[in-house]
Design a protein that fits this description.
Number of helices: 7
Radius of gyration: 21 Å
Distance between the termini: 35 Å
Order of helices and strands: EEEEEHEEEEEEHEHEHEEEHEHEHE
Largest sheet: 7 strands, mixed
Structural class: alpha/beta
Strand order of the largest sheet: 7-8-9-10-11-18-19
Number of strands: 19
Number of domains: 2
Helix content: 10-25%
Amino acid sequence: MSANFSWIRPDPRGIFVVPANSWIDPAHPVDTALVTHGHADHARGGHRQTFATPETLTIMKLRYATCDGAVPIAYGETVRLPGGVNATFVPAGHVLGSAQILLEHAGERVVITGDYKRRADPTCAPFQVTPCDIFITEATFGLPVFTHPPIAQEIGKLLAARQKNPDACILVGAYALGKAQRVIAELRSAGHDSTIWLHGAMEAMCRLYEEHRVPLGDLRLVSDAPSRDALRGAIVIAPPSALNDRWSRRLPDPVTAMASGWMRVRQRARQRGVQLPLVISDHADWGELTRTIAEVNPAETWITHGREEALLRWHELTQRRARALAMVGREEEDD
């Protein structure tokens, strides 16, 4: 590669943009942070100034009380940073407000993806392929064994379990930001218009999504159910941590499900006591990772937080340049 890209520096705490004295998804409070999305392994409070999409800033305000120094950047908008660096926010398709960040400096282009997926999702803007010189990609499911099935198939399994167990409820563990709202929206698309019941920890984020014009239908709190019997035949959405705790004991004979890309691994489902594993992920699977890299066609790929070895080997076999980054704090999502 003719360019040396000395102006962008991977660090265990984040990606440092040297001439702008700015960080991408820093793991510690800094003067200037550019944030890809609202999950806590990428977004944190305490920065003097935070650049992110309006939706991500709203999520950060709800989750981390981030208000001061918030600078909203719409998709496609370019902000001029110090040192002659331009930053453009591009849809990543991960969760509401998620963005890739395109950095341009001295004629060179770097894309930091944060987390992303390529599947259609009614709750967020779709991933946008952005050509660049360096492509910094996640590799959460960076092994060939990870091939996510069509989400309609997994939603069909969920609805079939409900029909088969009319006197029970189906208790679905789903991450509170992104996964829960996607499962609800897909249930609505599949024709399920009955009340969906929520654990209290899910309510605020679901309401935030609705405020951003993501319709989720009739949602009610389990705590507001008039009786235990009112939940028979119902679908209940809760954090994964609530599947087997005391809270779930109030439910009528729950069939335990979990929506996660990790449900492809049977041992993980057994360890959690999951009766109905639903392979639903908000990250790219192996085929989507490799297809995306081929479409972006960077001069070099930097790989972070995931199964780096297999993706490095794929680059070697396809005669592409790549390196692995040593990043910390990238294990928030129970995806």
